[in-house]
Specification:
Elements lengths: L3 E4 L2 E4 L1 E4 L12 H13 L4 E3 L8 H10 L8 E6 L1 E5 L19 E5 L3 H15 L6 E5 L5 H17 L5 E6 L3 H9 L4 E5 L11 H10 L2 E5 L17 E2 L2 E2 L2 H16 L4 H7 L7 E7 L3 H12 L4 H9 L10
Parallel strand pairs: 3-4, 3-14, 4-5, 5-8, 8-9, 9-10, 10-11, 11-14
Antiparallel strand pairs: 1-2, 6-7, 12-13
Length: about 325
């Protein structure tokens, strides 16, 4: 079974299921495949599930809620996000949402809103789509261009909901670490989700965030640990995705050097990619996207693989990763 780490009363499995794929991220998944993926994750011991209205314009939340209805609500941690309200858009219903990488009809559109009313409306709609009476963690979703609202009305509203017991914890989820550090510094957030900036490939940008999280007792969830595909295979191919675009050649070469070190010490690049963030004491979970039962099985195997300490020592000695002691 997957171990758990406890933070402020939440028992979070160290491997979480990222549910963007349930919203047809990149390609279509059937309802049956989505349900089978969630059930396989549960059977393997995963007890943390992360979703968002953004993922498939609500499809991910609906599918995840239907699948999780088979299990006791008190036995898993569920997170969703606020910031992007979904409003009817009949004029675009004939289009697909491929500009946002989701293969779903564009019958609603996203409107960014971190006002008190916007947060409350978003959370109420998510509860309805998920079919639950509460979520454990609420993240403000990608507030890069809305940070003033995130640190004021967004944080204030979520803090009050937490203090009232409506939600368990709040924070933000972003593809950068700098603003997450600012949020930790300027609010009473409990948890942050850092996507792509706390990985085997890159950690320097997360140093301040990690140190502030340690000082203030804030948990960190590491997402996009494969850097959107670059670190997802035992052997790095010539053409591969990095941050949702083609990886530059110098980045590919760095990944191949990581691959060589992992192989030389009896490990694999993907297993090291999943487990590296978990070496940081502030990190409670590594969230991995999983499309289908096979990817669930692969992610669990990678999270639980035995990795010799010599591999981590070699990566640190070569200057590729920060040691937990340096944080």
């Amino acid at each position: 079974m997957i171990p758990v780490r406890t933070h402020r009363g939440l028992d979070v499995s160290i491997l979480g299921m990222g549910c963007a794929q349930l919203g047809n991220l990149g390609s279509v998944m059937t309802d049956e495949e989505a349900e089978a993926s969630v059930h396989a994750a549960w059977d393997a011991g995963i007890r943390y599930f992360d979703t968002a209205p953004h993922y498939g314009l609500g499809l991910s939340e609906r599918r995840l809620g239907r699948a999780l209805a088979a299990y006791p609500r008190d036995e898993y941690v569920l997170s969703t996000k606020v910031g992007r309200l979904l409003v009817p858009s009949p004029e675009t219903a004939h289009l697909r949402d491929m500009a946002n990488l989701f293969d779903v009809p564009s019958d609603v559109r996203r409107v960014y809103d971190l006002s008190r009313d916007g947060v409350l409306r978003s959370l109420e709609a998510s509860l309805d789509r998920l079919g639950v009476d509460r979520v454990d963690v609420v993240y403000m979703h990608d507030p890069d261009d809305h940070f003033d609202a995130a640190r004021t009305t967004g944080a204030q509203t979520l803090s009050a909901l937490r203090d009232e017991g409506v939600i368990g914890a709040y924070g933000a989820g972003m593809n950068q670490a700098g603003m997450l550090a600012d949020l930790i510094e300027q609010t009473d957030a409990d948890i942050v989700m850092c996507a792509g900036r706390l990985t085997l490939l890159e950690q320097a940008a997360s140093l301040r965030m990690l140190r502030l999280a340690r000082e203030r007792g804030v948990a960190v969830v590491a997402a996009a640990v494969y850097n959107s595909g670059l670190l997802a295979r035992d052997s790095v191919p010539d053409r591969v995705s990095y941050d949702y675009a083609d990886a530059p050649q110098d980045v590919v070469e760095r990944a191949r050097e990581l691959e060589r070190i992992c192989r030389a010490h009896g490990g694999t690049l993907p297993s090291a990619a999943v487990q590296y963030p978990l070496r940081m004491p502030q990190v409670v979970s590594a969230v991995v996207g999983m499309h289908g039962v096979q990817q669930v099985t692969e992610a669990v195997a990678r999270a639980t693989a035995s990795i010799p300490e010599s591999l981590w020592n070699a990566l640190e000695h070569a200057g590729h990763v920060l040691s937990p002691e340096s944080i």
